[in-house]
Specification:
The protein has a seven-stranded mixed β-sheet. It is 44% helix and 24% strand. The chain is built from ten helices and seven strands. A hairpin with a 4-residue loop joins strand 5 (143-157) and strand 6 (162-171). The longest helix has 18 residues, at 205-222. The protein has helices at residues 4-10, 16-21, 27-38, 50-61, 81-90, 106-114, 118-127, 184-192, 197-201, 205-222, and strands at residues 43-46, 71-75, 97-101, 130-140, 143-157, 162-171, 176-179.
């Protein structure tokens, strides 16, 4: 029988520190998402386990500024990719989206986007900015744990496929998270801050350096 204190603790919402202690995500990846939500970017979370997505969203909502509460919506596994996209397309407010999808099949989701009408795709690409994929992974001989498998930035599309940038990924062999390089989300943030496209091609100047420093400092703080 559980004690009263244990019952209370089990009902507490997850915090960012919980995700880090449980190695669900790395400090750098969480710092990246922190900067994204402060700059009104949308996050779509894919996870087969609703409990995992609920925990992740609970923790992430604590990083939003008080004046920018996220627009949260959950789609369970009864909703097809086409139905989810229809609802996203019809949403009046497509800023600060924090969407969870009860699935780990982002590839099927992407194919549905590609097959949509051009007018609809233009709206959807504004909503689909950052994709976070969670999975229960067998990391010990005794059981599985939740890991952020990938963070993907949606860049656009070519004639046959969606163009994505896998910015973070989890390596199963080392049970470690890796940053892959250039972030298009950081480019979006710099453009919002007033850096023009030509300056961005040259490196972004002072604002790019400030953004990079902010990302690193937040990661150190979280760590």
């Amino acid at each position: 029988m559980k004690k009263e204190g244990e019952d209370m603790q089990s009902k507490e919402k997850k915090q960012p520190i919980d995700l880090l202690r449980e190695s669900v995500i790395s400090p750098k990846a969480l710092s990246y998402l922190w900067l994204a939500v402060e700059n009104d970017l949308n996050i779509i979370l894919f996870s087969e386990e609703q409990e995992d997505s609920n925990d992740f969203i609970d923790a992430l909502t604590t990083l939003y500024p008080p004046s920018k509460a996220p627009n949260i919506k959950h789609f369970d596994n009864s909703k097809s990719s086409s139905l989810i996209l229809d609802e996203l397309y019809k949403m009046k407010d497509q800023n600060n989206l924090l969407i969870s999808v009860e699935s780990d099949d982002f590839i099927e989701f992407g194919k549905t986007v590609l097959s949509s009408e051009q007018e609809k795709k233009e709206i959807l690409y504004k909503a689909l900015e950052i994709i976070v994929i969670l999975n229960r992974e067998k990391v010990t001989s005794t059981g599985s744990k939740t890991r952020m498998r990938n963070i993907v930035e949606i860049v656009g599309e070519d004639e046959v496929s969606m163009i994505v940038n896998k910015i973070f990924f989890w390596d199963k062999r080392s049970d470690w998270f890796f940053f892959t390089g250039h972030s298009y989300v950081f480019d979006k943030i710099l453009l919002k801050q007033g850096v023009d496209k030509e300056e961005l091609k040259m490196g972004g100047g002072k604002l790019e350096k400030e953004l990079s420093n902010s990302w690193e400092q937040r990661a150190v703080f979280l760590r």
